[in-house]
Structure formats: C-alpha cells, structure tokens
C-alpha cells in the first residue's frame, strides 16, 4: 500500500490529443521510481533508501506485489482521475484473492490476524 502513496507524475499541455496520449504512454513506459521523480510529500515521508529500492524484497517496491500495485495504479489513474483510489485497491486486493477488510481498522491484533491467515 505504501507504493500508492508515491503516485505522482507531470503532464505537458498540448492541443494535439494524439501527441498527449503518446507523451503519457512514453512517461509510463520510461518512468523510474526514485526520490527525484516522487511527489514532494513522499520525499518527506520516505527518507531512507530502503523505500526506493527495486530489489529489497521487504521494501514497498522491491517485491512483485508492491511494484505491480504501484505501476498498476499509475496506469489505472490515467483514466480514473476523479475516482477514489480505494476503488483500485479493492479491485487489486480482490484480484489477488484476499477477502475484503475494514479500511479503518486500527487494532494491530486484528490486522496481524488478517495478514497471517491463508488467503488463496
């Protein structure tokens, strides 16, 4: 989920829709997740190198799920700019075979139980 906090990108302005579509596709294809390309809030919150590592398995982007979630969200957001990111998260979690859960749950015991149970 941490990966979704880092979603950020810039778009140029153009009257040529095809040029804009190609520009967005190029940005998506060439985007590399780094502190330099991240949203300023992400830079403030994620100050350790661990957060940005594409190979650290326990990091938010160093595992397949974290990377897929981040880049999937970037792509999804292109055509869903006004829809709550929770919609993407619910679809992603369902697609991974996890049961729904309370997004507002703060009890660490319940969260640990959810994480440790078999989901697939």
Task: Give a written overview of the molecule.
Helix 4 packs across helix 5 (85-95). The protein is built from six helices and no strands. By secondary structure, the protein is mainly alpha-helical. Mean pLDDT is 77; it is low at 1-17 and 19-28. The longest helix has 15 residues, at 64-78. The radius of gyration is 16 Å and the shape is globular.
Describe what is shown at a glance.
The protein is mainly α and 120 residues long. The protein contains six helices and no strands. The N terminus is likely disordered.
Which features does this protein show?
disordered N terminus; 6 helices; single chain; 0% strand; 120 residues; mainly alpha
Question: What order do the helices and strands come in, and which of them pair?
Answer:
Layout: H1 2-5, H2 17-30, H3 40-45, H4 64-78, H5 85-95, H6 108-116
Helix pairs in contact: 4-5
